[in-house]
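for the writeup, i need someone to sanity check this before i put it in the appendix. the sequnce is what the collaborator sent (i think, or maybe the updated version? ugh). structure was predicted straight from it, no edits. if anything looks off just tell me and ill rerun, i have time this weekend
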Amino acid sequence: MSNIKTLIFTYRTTYYISVLTLYREENVMPQWPHIYTQIIKNPYEEGRMNLRVLTGYGSSAFVHHLLYTYDRISIDVVLGMVKQQPITIWDHNEYVNLVRNTGRLRVRYYNGTPPIHAKAVLWQGENSEPDMAFAGSSNLTWHGFRDFQELMVSADPAEVLQAFPKEHFLKDCTDEDIFEHFQMLYQREPEIGDIDTSAIGAAVSGCPSVVLRLTQKKDDQVHGRSALNWGQRDGREPNQAYIPIASEIHRGNPDFFPDLAVEFTMITDDGESFVCAVAQQGRKAIHTNHDNSILGKYFRRRLGVRLGEKVENTHLYHYGRDSITIYKMNDDTYYMDFSQRRRQL
């Protein structure tokens, strides 16, 4: 009997190894760390432009990355878990902004039951015909497509298309009545898209944090033509800016910020949100990579500086602080505190 069991075990093991080898040789089972390249980058470079995604969870920062990295791509996303596990209000707001600003994105939330936890990617060819498809464990996030050890398997495109829910179960994120059907995390009021800054302030109290100076360490002066004044030079948009990261921050907290050029969401103490990335040699800057002037306009508004004008030391002095505190909520989301500490005159 033991010999028979051994033979059966050997046969099954040999069979599964053969199947895995076949998948790998034919490149039909993308695995970490090749999922992003094989499922997104390669199909796009081969000429495919229309992407449909069914996913339990998503990241607006990752979708932002896809839209601005691949400038001819059109993406149709269905998020299947929003009803049961609400997304954050800043993710929702960013989806709305991307839909309206790019014209190449559609995001819909599944409004049926039970929730959809499946993950599938479908590339469509000419005349919207299903052309290439994958299904597996990768959510539409940096974790799902790059950081975590996920698995996606090549699937029949027509069958994957059938897995997408019927239209009447879906609500576009831009629908005027969206908040009648879905409530978002950290939403200040049920019917508006404002961020509840009090709730976030309480939530980050135990999160790891770093303090970043907005002035030069050597003399406490505002940078003349970098940092908040990055755009103050000929030929540049004058509001361009970045937040400087001192080298000692990385030495003391090497895993605090994402890798170079990886998009993340930055929430602010006054209820704004931006998609940012760490940039420049030595990872010495945080900027809004699609438009470098977004941060510059934001800081000028907070400091009471006219758009296009240079930020001076007096502006920071009267505002009451020359640094920001950044809290890490998770790998995809950071919170920036630049709350005012106005000096008494």
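Residues 31-181 form a domain with the Endonuclease; Chain A fold (CATH 3.30.870.10). The chain has two domains: 31-181, 197-337.
thx in advance!!
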